[in-house]
Amino acid sequence: MREGNKAGIRRLFLPAAIASGVLFGAQSARAEDQATTISRGAYLATAGDCVACHTKPGGAPFAGGLVIASPMGGIVASNITPDPDTGIGKYTEEEFANALRKGIRRDGAHLYPAMPYTAYSEIADTDIHALYVYFMHGVAPLRQDNPKTELKFPFNIRAMMISWNLLFAGPPAAKGDPQTYSKIERGHYLADALGHCGTCHTPRNFLMGERSSSAYLGGTPLAGWYAPNITPSMNSGIGDWSEDDLVQYLRTGSVPGRAQAAGMMGEAVEHSFSKLTDEDLHAIAAYIRQIPKIEDSQAKQPRDRFGVAVQPIVDLQKPKLDREDDLFPMDGERIYVNNCAACHGLDGAGAADHFTPSLSSNAVVGAPGADNLIMAIVNGVDRTTNGHHVLMPGFGPTSDVQRLSDTDVAKLTNYVSGTFGSGDHHVTAQDVKVAREGGPLPALVKDMPALIGAGVIAAFAAMSCLIWWFRRRTQKQK
Amino acid sequence: MSSSNSLSADVVIVGSGVAGASIANELARAGLSVIVLEAGPRIDRQHILENFRTTENKGAYQLPYPPVPWAMHPPDQGSPNGYLHTTGPDGAAYQQGYLRVVGGTTWHWAGCAWRYLPSDFELHSRYGVGRDWAIKYDDLEPFYYQAEVMMGVAGPNMDVDDLGSPRSHNYPMKEVPLSYGADQFRKLIHEKTNYRVVHEPQARNTRPYDKRPTCEGNNNCMPICPIGAMYNGIHSVNHAEAAGARIIPNAVVYRLETDASNKKVVAVNYYDPDKNSHRVTGKFFVVAAHCIESAKLLLLSADDKNPRGIANSSDQVGRNMMDHTGVQLSFMSGNDSLWPGRGPLLTSIIDSFRDGPWRSERGAYLVHMVDDNQVDFATGLAIAKGYVGKELEEQIRYGSSHAVRLFSHNEGIADPDNRLTLSKTHKDVLGIPHPEVYYKLPEYTVKSCDHTKELFKELMALMSGTDPQWTKGYFPQCHPSGSTIMGTDPTNSVVDGECRTHDHENLFVASSAVFSSVGTGNITLTIAALALRVAASLKKEMLHA
């Protein structure tokens, strides 16, 4: 489902395809011994973040079992270790490729698009081969029977995915050997084919059809969070970020004075980007910095350039202490002082060594919407890169530090963005509740019964959208 | 006053502090039904912090927790108060601070998480004084580790400091780094004396742990950690509730009932704040309500079958009250500045007097150099000396960076005359008598304190100290213990080695109340380990029945 420059990709890769003469399923023209291929496949699996979905919480990597909840039933990620009975041990390379690119299982059954085969369709033949070799020879077979995916009727008829696939097939495979691509080509391939950017950062239309290039990486709500505009627009995107800034962000999740990664981006950094090579990170950054800008007319200045350190004026003179059970309402400033200031400072400047980030000059606080600020307050930040664990506790309903009510989170959000960021967004308790429960439901959910009535194809398109949507939610919750 | 509803669970626990909550969590996770009755209310961190910020007396650790009338607790350590009444020659040294709230007193502890020494469990066998426990160190070792994992204890590995309590595993987290002042102190002591300064094991995060952040050294562990980096009992309460345990706050238990045979407890009764009475039945009961309140409840439950109180055929309930009653000295160092008040309150300790053959004569002790902010001490001293204007400011600046505060934990010893009783003159709003404690510092502890004073003088001289300010008399450490003492003989002890009462087979006590000796280390980790051992006994008994 990469929208945008598909024709461009074909043009770009055509000479390489002619030069190498790569055929589907054939060995790469470059002789690689198996160990090299395995290690390259492992790297590609990291870039594709296979582990994120195919591992249940606390489970063995790639053994599956993660349940993706949807109103139609739970979709269970499969065991993709090479165990012959419960995993993919009996797959030929062609069958493996069909699963990745076409969503067709070895037994011919159709996968649900919880598996992002419409993105993986673009993976080059050489990389499919490396991934196959890695999964067959670099991953230990693990016998693990996972529960079967059993959706409600009529969604349990997998064959009906055929019609959906006719409507929404992904782009064709990239040509040539992606290892030989130029920096920008390589960045484009990593960003798009392995499905990291557009999946979250590009808005989807109602039935997940092709989006126009005018929306590519332009930012979209995402299960309560907001995956921001990452086009090189100065005020709306990341136009004021250098290539090095982007690389640092992808590697560590933190660029002091700009942004810190949390939520699903934190996971993507932790599991995938932080493990990619410098060269590849630079390729992604360079590519992102030259894609078409998308301007949001509301954005008047870069989101990481709002605010200055401001010291609140808190009245310390109280006539008496409040009885320990008097959990009286506090205003946003007091909630800030008693929950945030110990780490971020009364003035919001954070720690001098950036152990805790500044709240001014912070893309989350300066963003045009409060989604990510709400979600960071509720869920905290929990990110490990290269052995370095960053943790801000959440203040939501399961916090062990302080359980703030939705009303308190709303007041705090408005105080923080109003004092250190893009202004008071007048967030309400209801907004907070909706966000922490996964964001507004797609219109599709409400329209589901009508869609089923309207026709099977529409129903399956709708179902697929929902599966896709819930997959994102589940990744968030992992 | 009538019983308005009926409540029942497999296990009924009185008290929601570290002991009660950790048992509730273990049992609920094992699929048992659990009700926890807590006399006090639910509180939250942000409101206690608000109270802390707005009180001028930052050193009064109980002040930000003004109690509710139906679950009074002492206003402050070391001050006379209207709830815990003390008598006897050293009554003032038994003015303990504790909290009656959901989560218990570890809302405002300093996180010191000591294991006892093997010798602490065998005081009488080894040194001919005091009492032996009915268990040995090795019986508790696995539960010590379980408690360290539960709370998240940061401590030194053997190659850094051997603290004398053999370990099957390293600490779950790397030790808390010494603060600047503690590091200077350690260097000086190691250079000039044969004493030893070690890293203190602390239930405080040196890395993200249990979804709580790393300690940033805000320096107000007491009265409240502002960021949840230190373990509080409320974390175990949260875990227990998530596992299905039911916590009932504002439930003041006032009576335990036994069956006709008197072998079993059948119910507990509690008042809500309006004094409506409620009865809760169960298969097993655990009293985990702090040393003072646990003994108070057992005495309060006296009836025809148990005229001296529940579990009190030995007449030992309420007796043998112990503490780490110590001494305290503040002074101005004449050496380089130490800048106290940066980092956690306590990171190091002198443990050179924690054990030795002299324990047959005098109690052991530990010495803390407390790393709290000394601005108030420096200011008081400068004003008393008559400084004004710019000189006053300079003196405050100088004093704040040079003040040293030392205090000690001196080993108490079981003496049946040191006794908790129900007040005959004071009752709370529910008509429940206040606790009253007679306390005379045992000679064993007096000798220990005398030894400590000489050491303090020596340390002050090493630091070219001036302006010594000795805390008058003795200093309560708020580690009360012994009120339902453990032993093998039912005629002179209340609970057995499992913390099960000798008198009633389905009644356990989980508290420092069961300690047979009090050693020197802070008591919380041992309370938690004993509680987890109670949970293991209950699981074994209930799940294999």
Automatic annotation (TrEMBL), chain A:
The chain crosses the membrane at residues 450-470. It is found in: Cell membrane. Gene3D superfamilies: Cytochrome c-like domain (1.10.760.10). Residues 36-139, 182-292, 327-420 form the Cytochrome c domain. Its main location: membrane. SUPFAM superfamilies: Cytochrome c. Keywords: Cell membrane, Heme, Iron, Membrane, Metal-binding, Repeat, Signal, Transmembrane, Transmembrane helix. InterPro entries: Cyt_c-like_dom (IPR009056), Cyt_c-like_dom_sf (IPR036909), Cytochrome_c-type_DH (IPR051459), Membr-bd_ADH_cyt_c (IPR014353). Residues 1-31 form the signal peptide. Coiled coil: none annotated. This is Sorbitol dehydrogenase cytochrome c subunit. The lineage of its organism: Bacteria, Pseudomonadati, Pseudomonadota, Alphaproteobacteria, Acetobacterales.
UniProtKB/TrEMBL annotation, chain B:
Residues 10-43 form the FAD dependent oxidoreductase domain. InterPro entries: FAD-dep_OxRdtase, FAD/NAD-bd_sf, GMC_OxRdtase_N, GMC_OxRtase_C, P2Ox-like. Residues 239-325 form the Glucose-methanol-choline oxidoreductase N-terminal domain. Keywords: FAD, Flavoprotein, Oxidoreductase. Signal peptide: none annotated. The keyword Flavoprotein applies. Its cofactor is FAD. Residues 471-531 form the Glucose-methanol-choline oxidoreductase C-terminal domain. Pfam families: DAO, GMC_oxred_C, GMC_oxred_N. Belongs to the GMC oxidoreductase family. This is Solbitol dehydrogenase large subunit.
